[in-house]
Amino acid sequence: MSRDLTLALRLRDEALSDTLAYEITEGIGTEIGPRLAGTEAEARARTWAVAKLTALGFPEVRVEPFTVPLWVRGAEQAEIVTPFPQPLIITALGNSGATLPEGLTAEVFACANVATLEAATVDQIRGKIVFVSHGMVPTRDGSGYGQNRAVRGHAPTLASLKGAAAILIRSLGTNPHRHPHTGIQSFKDGAQPIPAAALSIADAEQLQRILQRGQPVRVHLVLTPRDLGTGPSGNVIAEIPGTDPAAGVVLVAGHLDSWDLSTGSVDNAAGCAIVASAALRVAQAGPHRRTIRVVWFGSEEIGLLGGFEYIRVHGAEKHAMIAESDMGADRIWRFDSKSPASAQPAIQRIATALASLGIEPGPTDDASGSDIGPLSERGVSTIELCQDATRYFDLHHTADDTLDKVDLKQLQQNVAAWTAMLAILANAPEELATPVAMSTDS
Predict the structure, then answer these.
(1) Are residues 263 and 403 in the same domain?
(2) pLDDT band at 438, cuts 50/70/90?
(3) Against a cut of 0.85, is the pTM above it?
């Protein structure tokens, strides 16, 4: 058995009793709370992160700052005026335009999906509140989110270009509760910002039922978000030098920012905690060949801005392998990879190390992540440890993303898997990096 696999198996088993990841997750959520990109709260999170990682023994901890657009939400209120008056639970989507303080009242134009909205005429939509009533179902691999993402990302632009007064979408989520899901969207193609909000799934279904009664439906909507120019953000980086600089960097990451509706314990304090705990365990086991770089990205939620900034600063460096934890804290069930033929023996050893954790090997030619996605798309070798996403989109971008949703045993399985994987990547004798011509352009 190779030395790196022997080490990985030992560290894996020890990590099954890890408590550090939970401690970090709890600390971020309790001592900082919501961490909207560009705000003072995100800045406090970076200060907290530097102090915590330094206290844990990471030898090189720093912040690489950048600035981001700063959008903040305001009042959020909606109610059906006719035919059956009643309140609706909503939350503004990122970069939403605002109503006047007193709000607006308009008739609802219903669309089953983005295709229906694309087919609608300007005359049908002008001056109305568009409602998109798509549905999303839970899946273990989280694929339902990607399949429906255009509802949030593209529908507001379409509605604006066709003269809508506002747009409401059924939340991109799977929870049956009255917790709407926020998320970023940007008005493109010359579209002017209009009020854009997500209905809780229960409220979206209620609005659908009322529309099915066949009578015109009018909604009163108040949204008063503001654009405040720019604010400071940054990537927190903790680095553990390796003994062979020419072997490259192993990057493991999460994102430190969150939406403002909750403490962001699942998305993504847990991811930050998992990768930091795993990296520390490998570092404490003794010298390792490759440099381990832990990155807690800033401003992921508003467009992967920390990831693009990372490429600007570090894109020309040799990355042996990159990986990110950003799908919650439930059990890892599969791992995917994308790396050259020279790395396949190491990938096979990782498969061996992860098998006893109930993790099956997936594709060896396809892997990605959120902040690391742009770097991965440039050809950098990537590993993706796939968490069970069955309940992730019950919580994603809602007020319900809180510490009580983090299960300690499942979190420990994550740490064990990341520790085993990282022990092999940091020490493998093989060449892991894909030869790519990197650019620092974002």
Answers:
(1) yes
(2) low
(3) yes
